[in-house]
Amino acid sequence: MEPVLTRCGYRCDLCLAYRPNLELHPENQQVLSDGWFKYFGFRIPPEEIICDGCLEENPRLVDTSCQVRPCVIEHGLANCAACKDYICEKLIERIVTLEEVRQRLRVEIPREDYERFILPYENKQRLDGIRAAGIHPLKRM
Q1: Which one, of 50, 49, 51, 55, lies nearest residue 4 by Cα?
Q2: C-alpha distance from residue 99 to each of 2, 24, 63, 93 (Å)
Q3: What is the pLDDT of residues 46-63, one digit of tens each?
Q4: In angstroms, rounded to a whole number, what is the distance separating the alpha carbons of residues 53 and 61?
């Protein structure tokens, strides 16, 4: 699957909640419910975990309260990396780094857990790379 970058820099294609991934592996719903609780402290009922990705028009999203998506769309950007206000209050709430998760939990994270529960959302490095490269495509309409 081609990389699919969200408005805030998450990777849909790596996320177990992404509809194409769930269609192949429906057991991901329970895995994510447990993993998100373990690493981020929130629990979503498994049956509510499915996401079309925020690039779609009128998508079904796991996080319906996200403030980044409407902001990026309003500004006509592909993602936060192109924003003059990078990193703003809206984005800071969504920043995920492996270091922060390790420090907060004070545990070593197994490789499989990293790949399933952190890597898809580890967005700061991705967005920083896009900014440094000067790659700012317009959003998909």
Answers
A1: 55
A2: 27, 31, 23, 16
A3: 999 999 999 999 999 999
A4: 7
